[in-house]
User: What shape does this take?
Amino acid sequence: MEKRTRDTYRLIQDTYIALMGETPYDRIKIREIAEAAHIQRSTFYQYYDNLNALISALEAELLGEMVFYKETEFDINHIEPLQSVRDWFAWGMDRRDYLLALMGENGDPYFEEKFKKKVCMDINRMMDAEGMPRDDLRPFCVELNYSIHASLLKFAMQLGVERCPFSTEELTRLANYWRVCALKAEQERKFPVSGKNKKSPECG
Assistant: This one.
């Protein structure tokens, strides 16, 4: 993609996100985007057929970028925070304006569900690789894991880089405490685990 084309895509997306500060995402007019971005309406239509195409492409781009867990990095003896989770926090802070807008009161109410579903799928894969059982406890463990990471990310995004008291490294370490406790407890069998070994549903 040429730089000029890429810049126009970004301009349209940035403008749409900025307008969500005052107007629900599905009530924003193409005319308003064109005026705020200082482009012709015909230019908008060169990139998107309509507003549905814009929001769909924007959300797909964000979710496509997002990676919470990479299977290749796991080592059963390595309980330090995973690099992919560090990268996930860093990505969230880099894309904070988009994420806060889409998850905010004027954003797409279904976007957060899609966001959660993708992260939970990665959490399930991570727990599988780490030998955690797919028993009756799994859905609750996945939900707790997601809640910890998502809450920390939202906290950091709402404050912004300048005001957040934690770096992405520190956020990752905070979130990793629960993972380490769960791994050690499973390895040492310090708590009872259901023996049903049935496949649990994905979170979200």
